[in-house]
Amino acid sequence: MKVFVLLLIMLFQCGILTNADPRDDNVGQTVAISPELFEKASAKYLEGDYDSAISLYEKLILETGRVSGNIYYNLGNSQLSAGKLGPAMVSYERARIFIPGDSDLKANHRYAKTLMKQQDPFEEKTLLGTVLRDLFAGIPIRSMYMILLLLYYGLIVFILTAKIYRKAGFWANLAIIVWVLAITGVAVPLRDKVRDIETAAIVTAQLTDARYEPSRAAMIHFPLYEGMRINILRKDGSWYRIRRPDGRIGWVRADGISTIKPL
Q: What is the pLDDT of residues 54-95, one digit of tens each?
């Protein structure tokens, strides 16, 4: 009975990931891109023709449908050099989905944040949540999937082996408990990453006001500045109900923000 209960727990932990979109991470996959178009875009960037570079990188994204983190990174650099802070933050955030541990991306993303008129409000998190988030911050989603699957199937093999050889004693049970905790420690931050990708957005307007209701006539609740990161709760026509990292909630027009999830 204990074996079946544990297996159900494991299935639940893996089941929380089923809503993930396979486009959230294509690291390690072969992506068909146009080398000529990529090189042309890079050349325009080096020439200082940032607007042309942006157009070419965006065309490359539309042509391929699925892109690498490097393309989003280069697009973000072009947008930042052109003075387009909001779109650059969107591109950097998209690049972080694919290559979160890239040192150049981290440096440029940090620099872009220093250009924001107002920094993102402080997000309150538990100590355990902060530790797990930081532990897996530099690991792509696909790699976290692989770690989770290895732990899951490893546990199944261990349980079956212990049952076959009748070794289900104290130490075996203790090992199973530790294994369950390890799987949970990977599954929870992975679930949070997937959910965040689904709902995260960046303010692309220089200034947009969050209102109490989805109407221009509604009272202003708080301002949002270009580059700030928010999460979308739901949509109502041309308005989004959003939440800031500090928990404050308001309504903003859709034309003032851009979702992070790659199209």
A: 999 998 888 766 578 899 999 999 999 999 999 999 999 999
Closest residue by Cα to residue 111 from 138, 139, 81: 81
To 5 degrees, how large is the angle CA 199–CA 202–CA 203?
130
**Residue 119 domain-assigned (yes or no):** no
Q: How far apart are CA 68 and CA 32, in angstroms?
A: 10
Write down the pTM of the prediction: 0.78
How far is the C-alpha of 110 from the C-alpha of 100, rounded, in Å?
13
**Nearest by Cα to 118 from 233, 249, 207, 246:** 207
The H or E element that residue 180 is part of is helix 170-199
Q: Of the residues 181, 199, 217, which one is the last residue of a structural domain?
A: 199
Phi-psi region of 47 (alpha: psi -120 to 50; beta: other; left: phi over 0): alpha
Give Rg (Cα) of the chain. 22
154 and 190, same structural domain?
A: yes
